[in-house]
Each structure stands twice: as structure tokens, then as C-alpha cells.
Amino acid sequence: MDIISEELTKFLISEEKISEKEIKPSTRIVEDLGLDGIDAHYLMESYSETFSIKVGDFDFHRYFNDETEVLSIIPTILFVFFRFLIWQRLMGKPALNLTTVPVTLAMLQQAIDDGVWNCARIESLAGTQVYPPPSKNPGWFSRIRNRT
């Protein structure tokens, strides 16, 4: 997918006030355009209505983050710290990354062409890597356990 359609270009310019020079197939919604949380929700809702795209297996949390409330920041920091401590240091397992899959404009165009959001097809065409490889540095607990 090398070309973004004129309809998608007009949509992005009118809806999100994106400049035409930013519209490339490799442009990422979150990282390059800075649309995440509620902004991304409104964009994807308007996008699916405008282009009559069936939802398919689209999961908002797979691609975008939620807005974080101020009161939930401290428990989140504690949770991430203890998860890292327990999983990585004590059990020797890589900590589970809460990463999202980057959504590119090429992925949006492919969904328009297909008429439905199909995660496997769209992500394979975009070349995203959802799960990073595991860490090669095991934690101290697994080193002790494997010393026999």
C-alpha cells in the first residue's frame, strides 16, 4: 500500500487539521500525529462512519491508550514497579509489556479498501511487530534454580 486515497486525505485534513505534508502511508496516528486516548476514539469513530467500515475484530485498547486519571497514576506506578520486581527479578521472566500496536495511515487505507477491520491482515501488511522478543538476560531466581 503506497498510496493514500484522496478521500482519506481530505478526511484527515478536514477532521483532524493534519497538514498535507504529514500524510504518508508510514505516518503513525499516536507517535507521529499525537492522537491518543479520547482524540483517537473520536477519530476512529468518525473514520468508521465516514467510510462505512465494519468494526470486525478492532479493539481500541490494542492500538490506543486510555486517558489516565490523575488519581490512578500512583497505583499504576506501584503496579508496574511490583510487576517488574516479581516477574523480571524474582522469576526470571520478561515483564509483560503493555505496548500498543502502531496504527499507520496505510492501515487505515487498507481497511477502507477491504471494507472491514481485520487485525491479522492489516497488521501483516503494515509490518508491525506486536510482541517483542523475550529478554536474553534472565533474572537471578532462574539462575539459582538452574544451577544444579
Textual characterization of the structure:
The protein is mostly helical and 148 residues long. It contains 7 helices and no strands. The longest helix is centred in the middle third of the chain and has 18 residues, at 73-90.
Helical fraction equals 40-55%
Tell me the structural class.
mainly alpha
Question: Outline, from the CA principal axes?
Answer: elongated
CA-to-CA gap between the ends? 53 Å
The number of helical runs is 7
- Find the count of extended strands (DSSP E, 2+ residues): 0
Radius of gyration over alpha carbons?
Answer: 19 Å
Order of helices and strands: HHHHHHH
Q: Largest sheet at a glance?
A: none
β-sheet strand percentage: under 5%
Low-confidence stretches: 129-136, 140-145
Quaternary:
single chain
- The averaged pLDDT comes out at 75
Topology record:
Layout: H1 6-16, H2 38-50, H3 60-63, H4 73-90, H5 105-114, H6 119-126, H7 140-145
In short:
Mean pLDDT is 75; it is low at 129-136 and 140-145.
Please give a handful of descriptors for the protein shown.
single chain; about 150 residues; mainly alpha; 7 helices
